[in-house]
Amino acid sequence: MGEFTDRLLILIIAVVGLGSLIIAWLGGFVVAEMGGWMEIGGLAVLVVLFLVALVGVWHEFNTVETESR
Predict the structure, then answer these.
(1) Were both Cys, which of 1, 14, 17, 29 would link to 5 (CB 3.0–4.6 Å)?
(2) How far is CA 43 from CA 6, 25, 54, in A?
């Protein structure tokens, strides 16, 4: 396999792992029935983590595309 395929596979594994972690964490919040500001803060952290992951994926794809040219 080439470098592009290796990086893509690693990126997919990382995104799936992070997504699983976020879903599990959100499930923990729902089970604990948190309320008020703590719930809002927890959800804000989840959103920030998700956005950071998306920016990381976008940046990695741009880096791989630039290097392959």
Answers:
(1) 1
(2) 33, 10, 17
What CA–CA distances, in Å, run from 57 to 18, 36, 44?
12, 32, 20
Rounding to the nearest 10 degrees, give the CA dihedral for residues 12, 17, 19, 22: -160
Q: Which residue has the higher pLDDT, 64 or 17?
A: 17
Q: What is the pLDDT of residues 14-38, one digit of tens each?
A: 887 887 787 777 767 665 666 677 7
Tokens of 56: 């990381």
Q: What's the rounded Cα separation, in Å, for the pair 36 and 24?
A: 20
